[in-house]
Amino acid sequence: MLNDLPPPIWVDNTDLLGNMIADIASRTRVAVDTESNSLHAFREKVCLIQFSTASTDYIVDPLALHDLSRLAPIFRDPSIEKIFHASEYDLICLRRDFGFSFANLFDTMHGARILGYPAVGLDRLLGDKFGVKIDKRHQKANWGARPLTKEQIHYARLDTHYLFDLRDTLEAELREASRMHFALEDFERACRFEEVKPRSNGASWERFSARKDLTQRELTVVANLCHFRDREAERLDRPPYKVVMDDVLIALAKNPPEAKVDLSAAGLSEKQIRLWGDMLLGAIRRGLEAPLVAKKKDDRKSDAVLRRLEKIKAWRKKTGMDMKVESDIILPKPYLALLADQPPKDLEELKVLMKEAPARFEMFGGQILSALGVNHAD
Fold it and tell me: What domains lie within the chain, and their CATH numbers?
Protein backbone atom coordinates (compact mmCIF):
# COMPACT_ATOMS: atom_id res chain seq x y z
CA MET A 1 0.00 0.00 0.00
CA LEU A 2 2.78 2.42 0.92
CA ASN A 3 4.55 1.83 -2.39
CA ASP A 4 1.39 2.94 -4.19
CA LEU A 5 1.60 6.45 -2.75
CA PRO A 6 2.54 9.15 -5.25
CA PRO A 7 5.80 10.90 -4.35
CA PRO A 8 5.52 13.95 -2.14
CA ILE A 9 6.15 17.39 -3.61
CA TRP A 10 9.57 18.68 -2.55
CA VAL A 11 9.19 22.42 -1.95
CA ASP A 12 12.53 24.20 -2.33
CA ASN A 13 11.73 27.38 -4.28
CA THR A 14 9.34 30.29 -3.92
CA ASP A 15 7.06 29.22 -6.78
CA LEU A 16 6.47 25.79 -5.29
CA LEU A 17 6.00 27.36 -1.86
CA GLY A 18 3.37 29.72 -3.27
CA ASN A 19 1.52 26.85 -4.95
CA MET A 20 1.53 24.84 -1.72
CA ILE A 21 0.29 27.79 0.35
CA ALA A 22 -2.54 28.41 -2.10
CA ASP A 23 -3.56 24.76 -1.79
CA ILE A 24 -3.46 24.78 2.03
CA ALA A 25 -5.27 28.12 2.27
CA SER A 26 -8.20 26.65 0.36
CA ARG A 27 -8.58 23.84 2.92
CA THR A 28 -10.14 23.63 6.36
CA ARG A 29 -7.36 21.48 7.78
CA VAL A 30 -3.77 20.46 7.15
CA ALA A 31 -1.46 17.93 8.80
CA VAL A 32 1.95 19.22 9.91
CA ASP A 33 5.23 17.85 11.25
CA THR A 34 8.84 18.98 11.47
CA GLU A 35 12.27 17.38 11.51
CA SER A 36 15.22 19.03 13.26
CA ASN A 37 18.90 18.17 13.58
CA SER A 38 19.39 18.36 17.34
CA LEU A 39 21.46 15.16 17.41
CA HIS A 40 23.85 16.40 14.74
CA ALA A 41 24.48 20.13 15.22
CA PHE A 42 25.54 22.58 17.90
CA ARG A 43 22.58 24.87 17.25
CA GLU A 44 19.63 22.83 16.17
CA LYS A 45 17.26 24.12 13.54
CA VAL A 46 14.18 22.98 11.70
CA CYS A 47 15.39 21.14 8.60
CA LEU A 48 12.07 19.94 7.15
CA ILE A 49 8.44 20.96 7.49
CA GLN A 50 5.97 18.39 6.24
CA PHE A 51 2.42 19.27 5.24
CA SER A 52 -0.36 17.02 4.03
CA THR A 53 -3.68 18.05 2.59
CA ALA A 54 -6.45 15.62 1.75
CA SER A 55 -4.86 15.01 -1.65
CA THR A 56 -1.17 15.96 -1.52
CA ASP A 57 1.91 15.51 0.67
CA TYR A 58 4.43 18.35 0.69
CA ILE A 59 7.92 18.52 2.18
CA VAL A 60 9.28 22.04 2.64
CA ASP A 61 13.06 22.51 2.71
CA PRO A 62 13.85 25.44 5.05
CA LEU A 63 17.54 25.11 4.21
CA ALA A 64 16.80 26.11 0.61
CA LEU A 65 14.04 28.59 1.41
CA HIS A 66 15.45 31.28 3.67
CA ASP A 67 12.17 33.15 4.12
CA LEU A 68 9.18 31.16 5.28
CA SER A 69 7.17 34.14 6.55
CA ARG A 70 4.47 33.37 3.97
CA LEU A 71 3.54 30.33 6.08
CA ALA A 72 2.71 32.48 9.10
CA PRO A 73 -0.91 33.21 8.07
CA ILE A 74 -1.57 29.47 7.72
CA PHE A 75 -0.42 28.70 11.26
CA ARG A 76 -2.34 31.56 12.87
CA ASP A 77 -5.53 31.15 10.82
CA PRO A 78 -8.28 29.85 13.15
CA SER A 79 -10.30 28.61 10.19
CA ILE A 80 -7.61 26.05 9.25
CA GLU A 81 -7.08 23.22 11.71
CA LYS A 82 -3.44 22.16 12.04
CA ILE A 83 -3.11 18.46 12.89
CA PHE A 84 0.11 17.44 14.65
CA HIS A 85 1.29 14.32 16.40
CA ALA A 86 3.18 15.31 19.58
CA SER A 87 2.93 19.03 18.81
CA GLU A 88 4.78 20.49 21.81
CA TYR A 89 8.29 20.27 20.43
CA ASP A 90 7.24 21.17 16.89
CA LEU A 91 5.55 24.34 18.15
CA ILE A 92 8.59 25.31 20.22
CA CYS A 93 10.91 24.88 17.23
CA LEU A 94 8.61 26.69 14.79
CA ARG A 95 8.27 29.60 17.20
CA ARG A 96 12.01 29.69 17.80
CA ASP A 97 13.16 29.53 14.17
CA PHE A 98 10.39 31.41 12.38
CA GLY A 99 8.39 33.35 14.96
CA PHE A 100 5.13 31.61 14.02
CA SER A 101 2.06 31.86 16.22
CA PHE A 102 -0.70 29.29 16.25
CA ALA A 103 -4.45 28.89 16.34
CA ASN A 104 -6.69 25.84 15.99
CA LEU A 105 -4.68 22.65 16.36
CA PHE A 106 -5.41 19.00 17.02
CA ASP A 107 -2.70 16.84 18.56
CA THR A 108 -3.28 13.15 17.88
CA MET A 109 -0.75 12.00 20.48
CA HIS A 110 -2.38 14.07 23.19
CA GLY A 111 -5.81 12.88 22.10
CA ALA A 112 -4.62 9.30 22.53
CA ARG A 113 -3.23 10.15 25.99
CA ILE A 114 -6.58 11.63 27.05
CA LEU A 115 -8.20 8.37 25.99
CA GLY A 116 -5.75 6.43 28.16
CA TYR A 117 -3.87 4.65 25.39
CA PRO A 118 -0.84 2.89 26.92
CA ALA A 119 1.30 3.47 23.81
CA VAL A 120 0.87 6.73 21.90
CA GLY A 121 3.77 6.77 19.44
CA LEU A 122 2.70 7.44 15.87
CA ASP A 123 4.13 4.16 14.65
CA ARG A 124 2.14 2.22 17.25
CA LEU A 125 -1.12 4.07 16.63
CA LEU A 126 -0.90 3.79 12.84
CA GLY A 127 -0.01 0.13 13.13
CA ASP A 128 -2.88 -0.64 15.50
CA LYS A 129 -5.50 1.47 13.70
CA PHE A 130 -4.61 1.07 10.03
CA GLY A 131 -1.96 -1.64 9.75
CA VAL A 132 0.60 0.93 8.59
CA LYS A 133 4.21 0.16 9.45
CA ILE A 134 6.73 2.99 9.84
CA ASP A 135 10.45 2.32 9.81
CA LYS A 136 11.66 4.23 12.88
CA ARG A 137 15.33 3.79 11.92
CA HIS A 138 15.21 7.25 10.35
CA GLN A 139 13.90 8.95 13.48
CA LYS A 140 17.40 10.05 14.52
CA ALA A 141 18.69 10.74 11.02
CA ASN A 142 20.69 13.86 10.19
CA TRP A 143 17.87 15.88 8.65
CA GLY A 144 20.26 18.75 7.96
CA ALA A 145 22.19 16.67 5.43
CA ARG A 146 21.51 17.05 1.73
CA PRO A 147 20.55 15.22 -0.35
CA LEU A 148 18.19 13.12 1.75
CA THR A 149 17.70 9.51 0.75
CA LYS A 150 14.44 8.29 -0.77
CA GLU A 151 13.86 6.31 2.41
CA GLN A 152 14.23 9.41 4.57
CA ILE A 153 11.80 11.37 2.39
CA HIS A 154 9.33 8.50 2.51
CA TYR A 155 9.62 8.32 6.30
CA ALA A 156 9.13 12.08 6.63
CA ARG A 157 5.96 12.11 4.52
CA LEU A 158 4.42 9.29 6.55
CA ASP A 159 4.55 11.50 9.64
CA THR A 160 1.69 13.55 8.18
CA HIS A 161 0.09 11.41 5.47
CA TYR A 162 -2.23 9.43 7.77
CA LEU A 163 -2.93 12.10 10.38
CA PHE A 164 -6.36 12.98 8.94
CA ASP A 165 -7.65 9.44 9.43
CA LEU A 166 -6.02 9.13 12.84
CA ARG A 167 -7.42 12.49 13.96
CA ASP A 168 -10.97 11.58 12.91
CA THR A 169 -10.77 8.19 14.60
CA LEU A 170 -9.55 9.72 17.85
CA GLU A 171 -12.11 12.52 17.80
CA ALA A 172 -14.90 9.95 17.53
CA GLU A 173 -13.43 8.05 20.48
CA LEU A 174 -12.97 11.24 22.51
CA ARG A 175 -16.59 12.23 21.98
CA GLU A 176 -17.82 8.74 22.81
CA ALA A 177 -15.80 8.84 26.03
CA SER A 178 -17.04 12.39 26.82
CA ARG A 179 -13.45 13.66 26.89
CA MET A 180 -13.37 15.88 23.83
CA HIS A 181 -13.77 18.96 26.02
CA PHE A 182 -10.48 18.11 27.75
CA ALA A 183 -8.75 17.85 24.39
CA LEU A 184 -10.11 21.14 23.09
CA GLU A 185 -8.96 23.16 26.09
CA ASP A 186 -5.53 21.50 25.98
CA PHE A 187 -5.17 22.28 22.27
CA GLU A 188 -6.12 25.88 22.90
CA ARG A 189 -3.61 26.14 25.75
CA ALA A 190 -0.87 24.72 23.49
CA CYS A 191 -1.51 27.54 21.01
CA ARG A 192 -1.11 30.14 23.77
CA PHE A 193 2.02 28.63 25.30
CA GLU A 194 4.92 30.84 24.30
CA GLU A 195 8.06 29.08 25.52
CA VAL A 196 11.03 30.00 23.34
CA LYS A 197 13.64 27.27 23.22
CA PRO A 198 17.25 28.50 23.06
CA ARG A 199 18.97 27.86 19.77
CA SER A 200 21.99 26.28 21.43
CA ASN A 201 21.69 22.52 21.64
CA GLY A 202 24.28 22.61 24.36
CA ALA A 203 23.85 23.70 27.88
CA SER A 204 25.85 26.08 29.97
CA TRP A 205 27.10 25.14 33.41
CA GLU A 206 23.93 26.62 34.91
CA ARG A 207 22.14 23.35 34.13
CA PHE A 208 24.23 21.79 36.89
CA SER A 209 23.85 24.63 39.38
CA ALA A 210 21.04 23.04 41.40
CA ARG A 211 22.85 19.73 41.94
CA LYS A 212 23.27 19.09 45.62
CA ASP A 213 26.15 16.64 45.06
CA LEU A 214 28.45 19.39 43.73
CA THR A 215 30.33 21.81 45.95
CA GLN A 216 30.74 25.38 44.75
CA ARG A 217 34.35 24.66 43.79
CA GLU A 218 33.34 21.56 41.84
CA LEU A 219 30.60 23.55 40.15
CA THR A 220 33.16 26.21 39.23
CA VAL A 221 35.30 23.52 37.59
CA VAL A 222 32.23 22.24 35.73
CA ALA A 223 31.52 25.79 34.54
CA ASN A 224 35.00 26.12 33.06
CA LEU A 225 34.78 22.66 31.47
CA CYS A 226 31.42 23.62 29.94
CA HIS A 227 32.91 26.80 28.47
CA PHE A 228 35.59 24.70 26.78
CA ARG A 229 33.09 22.10 25.61
CA ASP A 230 30.65 24.60 24.14
CA ARG A 231 33.42 26.41 22.24
CA GLU A 232 34.69 23.17 20.79
CA ALA A 233 31.20 21.89 19.96
CA GLU A 234 30.38 25.13 18.18
CA ARG A 235 33.64 24.95 16.21
CA LEU A 236 32.87 21.39 15.12
CA ASP A 237 29.11 22.03 14.76
CA ARG A 238 28.11 19.07 16.85
CA PRO A 239 26.08 18.61 20.05
CA PRO A 240 28.25 19.19 23.13
CA TYR A 241 27.64 15.67 24.41
CA LYS A 242 29.46 14.43 21.31
CA VAL A 243 32.57 16.25 22.56
CA VAL A 244 32.42 15.16 26.21
CA MET A 245 29.50 13.58 28.06
CA ASP A 246 27.99 15.26 31.13
CA ASP A 247 28.97 12.46 33.51
CA VAL A 248 32.60 12.79 32.44
CA LEU A 249 32.55 16.52 33.26
CA ILE A 250 31.19 15.72 36.71
CA ALA A 251 33.86 13.05 37.26
CA LEU A 252 36.62 15.48 36.23
CA ALA A 253 35.29 18.11 38.63
CA LYS A 254 35.01 15.72 41.56
CA ASN A 255 38.47 14.18 41.07
CA PRO A 256 40.53 16.76 39.17
CA PRO A 257 43.41 15.07 37.32
CA GLU A 258 46.79 16.75 37.18
CA ALA A 259 48.17 15.13 34.02
CA LYS A 260 46.87 13.74 30.74
CA VAL A 261 47.68 10.22 31.85
CA ASP A 262 45.06 10.60 34.60
CA LEU A 263 42.22 11.65 32.28
CA SER A 264 41.21 8.14 31.25
CA ALA A 265 40.05 7.41 34.80
CA ALA A 266 37.15 9.83 34.26
CA GLY A 267 35.98 7.91 31.20
CA LEU A 268 37.70 9.81 28.37
CA SER A 269 38.79 7.83 25.35
CA GLU A 270 42.31 7.88 23.92
CA LYS A 271 41.05 9.97 21.02
CA GLN A 272 39.44 12.52 23.32
CA ILE A 273 42.61 12.76 25.39
CA ARG A 274 44.71 13.19 22.26
CA LEU A 275 42.43 15.89 20.85
CA TRP A 276 41.45 17.80 23.97
CA GLY A 277 43.54 16.59 26.89
CA ASP A 278 45.59 19.77 27.29
CA MET A 279 42.51 21.99 26.93
CA LEU A 280 40.59 19.94 29.49
CA LEU A 281 43.44 20.18 31.97
CA GLY A 282 43.62 23.92 31.36
CA ALA A 283 39.90 24.31 31.99
CA ILE A 284 40.20 22.28 35.20
CA ARG A 285 43.09 24.43 36.46
CA ARG A 286 41.13 27.60 35.72
CA GLY A 287 38.13 26.20 37.57
CA LEU A 288 40.25 25.37 40.62
CA GLU A 289 41.64 28.92 40.77
CA ALA A 290 38.69 31.04 39.59
CA PRO A 291 36.26 32.87 41.86
CA LEU A 292 33.44 30.59 42.90
CA VAL A 293 30.32 30.61 40.77
CA ALA A 294 27.00 30.99 42.54
CA LYS A 295 24.87 27.92 43.01
CA LYS A 296 21.23 28.17 42.03
CA LYS A 297 19.15 29.38 44.92
CA ASP A 298 16.89 26.81 46.50
CA ASP A 299 13.46 28.35 46.07
CA ARG A 300 11.96 26.16 48.72
CA LYS A 301 8.26 26.60 49.22
CA SER A 302 6.75 27.01 52.65
CA ASP A 303 5.62 23.90 54.47
CA ALA A 304 1.99 24.92 53.96
CA VAL A 305 2.47 25.23 50.19
CA LEU A 306 4.28 21.89 50.04
CA ARG A 307 1.49 20.18 51.99
CA ARG A 308 -1.13 21.57 49.59
CA LEU A 309 1.00 20.48 46.64
CA GLU A 310 1.23 16.93 47.96
CA LYS A 311 -2.53 16.81 48.56
CA ILE A 312 -3.27 17.96 45.01
CA LYS A 313 -0.76 15.51 43.56
CA ALA A 314 -2.21 12.64 45.57
CA TRP A 315 -5.76 13.48 44.46
CA ARG A 316 -4.62 13.90 40.84
CA LYS A 317 -2.79 10.57 40.83
CA LYS A 318 -5.71 8.64 42.33
CA THR A 319 -8.21 10.22 39.95
CA GLY A 320 -5.94 9.45 37.01
CA MET A 321 -5.72 5.83 38.08
CA ASP A 322 -9.51 5.67 38.39
CA MET A 323 -9.93 7.11 34.87
CA LYS A 324 -7.00 5.07 33.50
CA VAL A 325 -5.05 8.11 32.31
CA GLU A 326 -1.82 9.76 33.37
CA SER A 327 -2.22 12.30 36.15
CA ASP A 328 -1.47 15.40 34.02
CA ILE A 329 -4.57 14.64 31.96
CA ILE A 330 -6.64 15.16 35.09
CA LEU A 331 -4.95 18.44 36.00
CA PRO A 332 -2.19 19.88 33.80
CA LYS A 333 1.09 20.60 35.57
CA PRO A 334 0.85 24.44 35.60
CA TYR A 335 -2.18 24.22 37.87
CA LEU A 336 -0.34 22.28 40.58
CA ALA A 337 1.87 25.18 41.64
CA LEU A 338 -0.89 27.72 41.02
CA LEU A 339 -3.36 26.02 43.33
CA ALA A 340 -0.73 25.27 45.98
CA ASP A 341 0.55 28.86 45.96
CA GLN A 342 -2.84 30.54 45.70
CA PRO A 343 -5.33 28.22 47.39
CA PRO A 344 -8.89 29.22 46.53
CA LYS A 345 -11.35 29.83 49.35
CA ASP A 346 -14.39 28.71 47.38
CA LEU A 347 -15.60 27.59 43.95
CA GLU A 348 -15.77 31.14 42.61
CA GLU A 349 -12.09 31.74 43.34
CA LEU A 350 -11.20 28.35 41.88
CA LYS A 351 -13.18 29.15 38.74
CA VAL A 352 -11.09 32.29 38.23
CA LEU A 353 -7.83 30.40 38.74
CA MET A 354 -8.96 27.73 36.27
CA LYS A 355 -10.55 30.06 33.73
CA GLU A 356 -8.45 28.50 30.94
CA ALA A 357 -9.44 24.97 32.00
CA PRO A 358 -13.24 25.18 32.25
CA ALA A 359 -13.76 21.49 31.50
CA ARG A 360 -11.56 20.46 34.40
CA PHE A 361 -13.21 22.99 36.68
CA GLU A 362 -16.66 21.72 35.77
CA MET A 363 -15.75 18.08 36.36
CA PHE A 364 -13.28 18.32 39.21
CA GLY A 365 -13.82 21.68 40.93
CA GLY A 366 -15.45 20.30 44.04
CA GLN A 367 -12.92 17.46 44.30
CA ILE A 368 -10.03 19.92 44.04
CA LEU A 369 -11.43 22.03 46.88
CA SER A 370 -11.91 18.92 48.99
CA ALA A 371 -8.35 17.84 48.27
CA LEU A 372 -7.16 21.24 49.44
CA GLY A 373 -9.22 20.89 52.62
CA VAL A 374 -11.71 23.61 51.72
CA ASN A 375 -15.26 23.14 52.93
CA HIS A 376 -17.77 23.88 50.20
CA ALA A 377 -21.31 23.17 49.13
CA ASP A 378 -21.70 21.09 45.99
Answer: 2-192 (3.30.420.10), 205-289 (1.10.150.80), 303-371 (1.10.150)
